[in-house]
Write a structure and sequence with these properties.
522 residues; Immunoglobulin-like; 12 helices; TIM Barrel; 28% strand; single chain; 8-stranded parallel beta sheet; Lipocalin; binds alpha-D-galactopyranose; 8-stranded antiparallel barrel
Length: 522
């Protein structure tokens, strides 16, 4: 699977004018050259098969890019294949320059470039590289489909009675994560009280992977020289270690996935002392359809069970194929309900709204996951991060911090460590709140195990407004109520069963309301 070295960057040989003796001879030559070349370029343009070395992965594997393009006028269509993905692409050419999009949803082109003589000079993400005409055989060998197992119910592993809490490396660090950073994050989570507040999983996301050894055992790459040692370190601090893989041959970031090696990888993870697996669909798209998801996730569910170590199983397939209806059957403890979150108000709100229809499927042992937290990553205001935390708590969502724990502002720390809000998320009843909407104001109500309810009133609008909480709309019997404001940490009056408070744009008022004789103090 590694790329051939023939795709290395080649130099453009530009003709130099001094070879032609005089200025006029040079101009004549230029004219002749352009007469010869122009029809060729405009009739062919980008059309053809190209190959170039895009990048080298952190495990040393080369990731060549093969482009099979067709240009008609300014329109470009075709396929771009890398080590882990096949993209049906569309793009536009303007003169010799072009931009290529992988999906109509892309806001920016994924690949840009220039046709320079017989080469393409390409830019993708931070990498600039050259592609040349592909030679016969320049393609990734096809993968074989595995026979998919018949569906059956994987017995529950009895883990995750409450929504999992911890930290994950992806949202902020992406591929810039290593053993040293993870140990420092674990230490800080002990020191700052996060572990004791319940954040116990330290989850490595994509790009930890090395290559398989001669026996097919997947190794970690140079960033994680001693995975067992890292797990021991995390365990010694009373925390747990999570890892990431894919049902596909490659992960989303194109590192080796568990395709065809499920049992062996589950055993490897168990031997390292792994406690949590996030299993990400992405790279399986090359081979399988959404209808195949259940069988492929079941395969790893069975493999984890056979490896005989308690491992929380987190399905990551962006909420496709109605995962909430079968996630628990494949042994899943949580499943993503959405695409990837980003650190913006719009993305955060879109993710939580997308989770709404899945509410009936949340409960002890199996949770809907609107993706990891962005709190503290800098793209939202503290007000918006309070709303983010409140919404994740009332929906009983997993709470996986995604920021640099070592560098938190006091405000961010107080948001992640608000124990009254955490208690709502971690309530034993495990109910996922659903919202009602009036104008820009949404009210989310979550019944709690002690008979009280948590209410989050959120202002989606651009102007300040008033939050109104009415006890008779919370499904609570009786006349007298007591309430805690979970962000102000005060007891608030519910006169005649109603509480009103100022509500900032994108802000939240979060209460815990109980019949008056029930203690609501934390
Ligand atoms: C997908 C997942 C993300 C993250 C990346 C890693 O995009 O949805 O949460 O795991 O892959 O490559």
């Amino acid at each position: 699977m590694t790329g051939s070295t023939s795709w290395k960057r080649t130099r453009v040989n530009k003709p130099t004018l001094r070879h032609y003796g005089s200025r006029s001879a040079a101009l004549l030559c230029l004219l002749l050259i352009s007469l010869v070349l122009t029809p060729l370029a405009s009739s062919q343009g980008l059309t053809g098969k190209w190959a170039g070395l895009w990048r080298t992965l952190d495990n040393g594997e080369e990731d060549p890019m093969y482009l099979d393009l067709y240009q008609e006028g300014s329109k470009i269509t075709g396929t771009i294949t890398t080590i882990g993905h096949i993209w049906q692409v569309n793009g536009t050419a303007t003169g010799n320059r072009f931009e290529i999009f992988f999906s109509p949803r892309d806001k920016k082109p994924r690949v840009t470039g220039e046709l320079a003589g017989s080469e393409l000079h390409l830019t993708r993400e931070d990498a600039q590289f050259t592609a040349v005409a592909a030679k016969p055989g320049d393609a990734y060998p096809p993968f074989e489909h595995m026979t998919l197992p018949a569906l059956h119910d994987v017995p529950p592993n009895n883990l995750a009675a409450l929504p999992p809490m911890g930290w994950n490396s992806w949202n902020l660090f992406q591929n810039n994560i290593d053993d040293k950073t993870v140990r420092a994050i674990a230490d800080e989570m002990v020191a700052n009280g996060m572990r004791d507040a319940g954040y116990v999983y330290i989850n490595l996301d994509d790009t930890w992977e090395g290559v398989r050894d001669a026996q097919g055992n997947l190794q970690a790459n140079h960033k994680f020289p001693d995975m067992k040692g890292l797990a021991d370190y995390v365990h010694a601090r009373g925390m747990k270690l999570g890892i990431y893989s894919s049902p596909g041959p490659r992960t989303c970031a194109e590192y080796p996935g568990s395709y065809g090696n499920e049992e062996q990888d589950a055993r490897t993870f168990a031997s390292w002392g792994i406690d949590y697996l996030k299993y990400d669909w992405c790279g399986a798209r090359m081979l399988y359809k959404n209808e195949d998801m259940q069988a492929l996730y079941q395969k790893m569910g069975d493999a984890l069970r056979k490896a005989d170590r308690p491992v929380v199983y987190s399905l990551c397939q962006y909420g496709n194929a109605k995962v909430e209806t079968w996630g628990a059957k494949v042994g899943g403890n949580l499943w993503r309900t959405t695409g990837d979150i980003s650190d913006t108000w719009t993305s955060m709100i879109a993710n939580i709204e997308k989770q709404v229809p899945t509410a009936p499927y949340a409960g002890p042992g199996h949770w809907n996951d609107p993706d990891m937290l962005e709190i503290g990553n800098g793209g939202m205001t503290d007000e918006e991060y309070r709303t983010h935390m409140s919404l994740w708590a009332v929906t009983a969502s997993p709470l996986l911090a995604g920021n640099d724990i070592r560098k938190m502002s006091p405000a961010v720390k107080s948001i992640l460590l608000n124990k009254e809000v955490l208690a709502v998320d971690q309530d034993a009843l495990g109910k996922q709140a659903s919202p009602t909407r009036a104008g820009d104001v949404e009210t989310w109500v979550k019944p709690l195990a002690d008979g009280s309810v948590a209410v989050a009133v959120v202002n989606l609008g651009a102007s300040a407004t008033t939050a109104k909480v009415q006890a008779d709309k919370l499904g609570m019997p009786g006349q007298a109520f007591s309430a805690r404001d979970l962000w102000a940490h005060t007891t608030v009056p519910l006169q005649k069963g109603t509480y009103t408070a100022a509500l900032a744009s994108h802000g939240v008022v979060m209460l815990r309301v109980a019949p008056a004789n029930t203690a609501t103090k934390q």
